[in-house]
Q: What sequence folds into this?
DNA sequence: CCACGGATTGGCT
DNA sequence: GCCAATCCGTGGA
């Protein structure tokens, strides 16, 4: 049987629902990127939700700017931003148009194209077992491994370049809820979600 | 193992 | 001019 026929790409309807509901459901889904015929994919294991209507840590809290405008689209677009002078991070825009809500993909478990991810991240082969888990265990690492950058800003996730694929529920994973990482405002919102005991989660 | 700080660009005030 | 939704190397325990 062909694997492809079983794959179900997540559609607009999936993304336009409530932020926290989508954030929870993103866990376990497959993030796929096709570029120059090469496929890279990984299972989402850690996310964080951001809501500019009252969450001061969200980039949309200050209103619409050129940088964040895609976050005000309806769900199903990719918001990529550049930070700390070095790193890109990617988010899934969520909810109805005008909401300014998105979900940061913080970690994935590599599935396909792993040798390319290693090359993208380290420019050499793995040195040890520990580096295997350092491949995609953080938002900047995910973008580096998947080679996601400014040119992917605003991509429609219902298209063919970058998209998410539903996954069959075999053993339902346990979800851990915690505070978000690396922010200085609205620090107490319990809006980080990750798959319990997955070795690619950025931290406990 | 953990804590700390430097790197380095660009968005926003 | 300030500072960030990060990462990595260093140095000490």
A:
């Amino acid at each position: 049987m062909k694997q492809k026929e079983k794959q179900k790409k997540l559609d607009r309807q999936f993304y336009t629902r409530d932020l926290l509901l989508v954030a929870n459901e993103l866990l376990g889904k497959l993030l796929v990127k096709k570029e120059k015929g090469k496929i890279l994919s990984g299972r989402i294991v850690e996310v964080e939700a951001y809501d500019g209507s009252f969450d001061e840590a969200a980039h949309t809290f200050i209103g619409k700017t050129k940088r964040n405008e895609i976050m005000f689209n309806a769900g199903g677009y990719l918001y990529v931003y550049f930070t700390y002078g070095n790193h890109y991070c990617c988010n899934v825009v969520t909810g109805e148009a005008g909401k300014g809500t998105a979900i940061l993909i913080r970690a994935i478990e590599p599935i396909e194209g792993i040798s390319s991810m290693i090359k993208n991240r380290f420019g050499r082969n793995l040195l040890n077992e520990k580096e295997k888990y350092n491949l995609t265990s953080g938002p900047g690492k995910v973008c580096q491994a998947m080679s996601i950058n400014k040119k992917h800003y605003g991509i429609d996730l219902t298209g063919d370049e970058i998209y998410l694929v539903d996954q069959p529920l075999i053993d339902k994973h346990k979800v851990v809820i915690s505070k978000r990482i690396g922010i200085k405002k609205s620090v107490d919102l319990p809006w980080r979600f990750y798959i319990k005991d997955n070795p690619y989660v950025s931290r406990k």
Notes: Chain A has six helices and eight strands. The two ends of chain A are 39 Å apart (CA to CA).
